[in-house]
Amino acid sequence: MKMKWLYPAALLLWLVLCALIGVAFASRAVHQVESELERVTGRLAEDIAQRLNATEAQLDSYAGFSTFGQHHGELTEHSLLLRQFKRHPSIVLGLRVRRVNEGERAAFERESSARRGRPVVIHGYDPARQPPRYPLEGGGSHYPVVSMVPAGALPPPFSPALGMDVSRVDFLYDALHQSQRRELPALSRPFALGDGRLGYLIIRPADEFVLQPAPALLPDRQFVALVLRVDDLLPRALDLPPGMRVQLWHQRYGQQDPQGRFLDTGRVARGPFETLLFPSLALSRSTGGSAPSLMLKVSWQLGWAQIGLFEWLVMALLALVLLAVLLFGVNTLLRCHVDRVAREQELFHLANHDALTGLANRNLFEDRLQHAIRRVRRNGKRLALLLLDMDRFKPVNDTYGHAAGDRVLQLIAARLNVVLRGEDTVARLGGDEFVVLLEDVDADADVAQVCERLQLALQEPYQIDGDTVTLGVSIGTAFYPDDGDAIEALLAVADRTMYSAKQRAAAR
Ligand SMILES: Nc1nc2c(ncn2[C@@H]2O[C@H](COP(=O)(O)OP(=O)(O)OP(=O)(O)O)[C@@H](O)[C@H]2O)c(=O)[nH]1
């Protein structure tokens, strides 16, 4: 393994582990906020349902009044509604609607005009722009507004006042149709009020208390409706946590359809890293009054803020401990690696060098010679092998002891190293026998010169513990490729010539 990658790898591992710790804490935070989301969604749905139930109670009393109390006249109806407006400022308008079949239209207009002392005609809100989308029930019935009590200035689309046919406004007709079909209060989709705020209409049949005949079959069905402000469907101060978004829309419209959207609030932008790391949770509930017609969705894009100060501290501490452990591990690994390399080098040295003199041993020498022969085969040059055997070494041992002999062998090795070039190989074959490998030999004379230098150096006296010892040396030479191309053959030739030299020296 390459040791230089150890620190970057440890750093990467540390980053990955830190990210995992972050994810673990984030998922813990997710579990906590799941229950909070459940609580917030349930509370909001409940709140909306309560507000709509209260509104329906207003509508019920208006419906009851319009069924039984009409003989008291419009003044009483006005005063009832004005009392309701005071108690419930979110109500913008109260209105009563009647079904008038096409055949009765003229009689209705005549009678209404006479009662009010001014012309009343059934008209569309803006027939040119808003043709009815739904087939009118009962083969061309009209649903004109027969009574209207505004809390303040009349907001559109109701400003055309009496006689306006609510079935000509598609979203109002939709609510009317629903309430008629289910005999329950029904909500319209939200629409813009004149003051730029949103409002909605809640409408219900007003004649359900009439049991005979069945209300649906009554020739002049009555409906009462309230127009309210959308703002009051939810508490004014929502106090949403960061990242939480509340959406409320009419069930008959898609979530993405802006027409059906009552509310979309609390959207908080999160950074891309937070969006990637933290999930977004969402809960949807249907809500409403007696007939749930609204969809509530609370979504929560979680982020760093969901992790508390204590968790941050624990995470930082864990990251530091991890860093310390990793650095300790890397240092230990590096130390082990350095020790192992040193041990290997030591073993290599022991296996390839002579323990006494530190010179190469026979193994290493043969290996070097092998390499040198391969090289010379390519470049066509020559090698020289010098075999050195000391003369009169045995008496040193015998006279001064083995330790002194060892010391002399070490001095011999040192002198060999001084005389030879760095690129030459010198090895101790054993006892007082040494071998030298000279590479790139150009001429025999060069080799003879080296032999002479060796002889001069080795014949110099040796000082051992105050005594002086003088030795001789016999050198045998062999050349590659002239004397053979195998190590054994070359050594045999060198041995032979060395032996002759020794005999010559002994004869002198
Ligand atoms: N001190 C010491 N002596 C050794 C070692 N290895 C071998 N010897 C001795 O070295 C001597 C070598 O013998 P020879 O080569 O016959 O001795 P010599 O006196 O040089 O004789 P010639 O070579 O014939 O001149 C022997 O006495 C060995 O015991 C060693 O590591 N240390």
UniProtKB/TrEMBL annotation:
Domain GGDEF: 381-508
Residue span, CHASE domain: 97-205
A cellular-component GO term for this protein: membrane
Localization per Swiss-Prot or TrEMBL: Membrane
SMART domains reported for this sequence: GGDEF
Top-level taxon of the source organism: Bacteria
CDD domains: GGDEF
Pfam families the record matches: GGDEF
Alphabetical list of SUPFAM superfamilies matching this protein: Nucleotide cyclase (SSF55073)
InterPro entries with a match to the protein in the record: CHASE_dom, CHASE_sf, DGC-Regulatory_Protein, GGDEF_dom, Nucleotide_cyclase, Rev_trsase/Diguanyl_cyclase
Primary location group: membrane
An annotated GO BP: signal transduction
Keyword Membrane applies: yes
GO molecular function: catalytic activity
Annotated transmembrane regions: 312-334
Keyword Ribosomal protein: no
Protein keywords: Membrane, Transmembrane, Transmembrane helix
Protein name: Diguanylate cyclase (GGDEF) domain-containing protein
Native species: Pseudogulbenkiania subflava DSM 22618
Source taxonomy: Bacteria, Pseudomonadati, Pseudomonadota, Betaproteobacteria, Neisseriales
